[in-house]
């Protein structure tokens, strides 16, 4: 057995050394138009075969027309990246935020990765804000080129940023017809698209606008000094606090935070940036124990710009808020009984993982097969803990709960927001979520590879819907109290949504005193 594992590791190690070079060569190759049209047909066929709700927001006739029309525009050879920019806008019209081709970005050798780790980012050292066709700097911690918050980025290497924004907006979609998701997600992925399209640069000429004054500046990728490298090393160390709050090295921030907002601990505040599941059980157990010991009357849960994550984690969180047993989501629908067996079990495995998975695959196969059942309606469903009854925790919070949401609240964030609102358990404050009120298609994925362009197409296999009565408005979760922030609020670090909640809590406190 050991010889078998070592042999697998050796073979895969040799393969990985050549795969980067081969992939990058293929990425730059021109593919004949007839082969690209085959990829269009392959894409649509796989979507129809595996996606359980393909025509939720677009009719089959309209989608047929869009795929057919796309093929008529492919008349010359294209690289995979060029083809991506033609095919992905059509997929975005399906209006499923989880459904997207993987852009064929350059892959890097281990040597190149090590070199990049010793350099600072070019554009990634700023924070941005998108409004319409405008991109603004809102934070510049390192005071690079003295660029002030509120400065607009007009162009990069003489190409207007507005052109990029229009182009990249066509590549993404929220769930349904909601519009709030775009500015949040676009500011986060803008430079992912830019680098995939243009490559990694050591410098860039930019044009900026601040207080009606235009400037031409050059950004340079600087080499990290000893202090920077020591900081990187320190951030990678996993202290108990970092584990509990799920520290993310790439953003130098925590996924979870808990604190009291007042001296007498009557207001508890929980910020959750991602439902990552890592150490979630312990975090909620300890946080709600603190709330109970402090006898807090108010709880604020902040899931703004939380793109989602684990259903298990939101079920755990809900169990600390529910007054009685609850079912978080409805039975999870599949396109067919066999789609769970097409999940690419070996994807993204290193040599050791691949060897291990090759031994455990039979058990995985049986697990997937046994979790599928046929409903009385003849539809295939997948068994999940979250569509069974869950009991509230012994120390579930019984006071007043506010949940802060915005257009960056997506996927699992929208699922729990929708369920909490339907059960009238909380007051939602902020703006409409980027994820749909009535659920989404995600769960686990089948990773298809287009045969000629070799672009990856992950297809969500589960229809995940909150256990509510649907309104079929094809929008996000609408807050009970709508409070919008503007760019100046962000620059001034003025949290108008949280301030509203604090003021409302003070109002409630004052009314209790008067009575």
UniProtKB/TrEMBL annotation:
Domain of life, source organism: Bacteria
GO terms, biological process: proteolysis; signal transduction
SMART domains linked to this entry: TSPc
Alphabetically ordered keywords of this record: Coiled coil
Identification of the protein by name: Peptidase S41
Residues of the Tail specific protease domain: 237-484
Single annotated GO MF: serine-type peptidase activity
PANTHER family associated with the record: CARBOXY-TERMINAL PROCESSING PROTEASE CTPA, TAIL-SPECIFIC PROTEASE
Coiled-coil residue spans: 212-239
InterPro entries: ClpP/crotonase-like_dom_sf, Tail-specific_protease
Listed GO CC annotations: outer membrane-bounded periplasmic space
Organism this protein belongs to: Chryseobacterium formosense
